[in-house]
Amino acid sequence: MNRIDLDREYINIVKENEALYYKDYLKTIEKVKNSTAMYKGKPVPFLYMPKFYTEEDLEGFKKLTSTLMIILKKVIDRYMEDFQFRKKFGFSKLLEDLILTEHGYNTKVPMARVDIFYRGKGRFKFCELNADGASAMNEDRELSRILSESISLRQMEKKYKIEAFELFDTWVKEAISIFREFNPSIENPNVAIVDFNDTGSPNEFEIFKCAFKRNGYNTEIVDPRDLKYLNGKLYFNDMQIDIVYRRLVTKDLMERLKEIPDFIEAAREGKVCIIGPIKTQIIHNKIIFKVLHDEDTWEFLSPEEIKFIKDHIPYTAKFEGNNFNFEELTIYKNKYILKPSDFYASQGVYAGQDFNNREWKEKLLECHGRDYLIQEYYTPPKCDLVEFEGGKLKIREFNNITGIYIYNEKLYGLYSRVGKNAIISGLHDCYTLPTYIVKKA
Question: Does the global pTM surpass 0.85?
Answer without folding.
Answer: yes
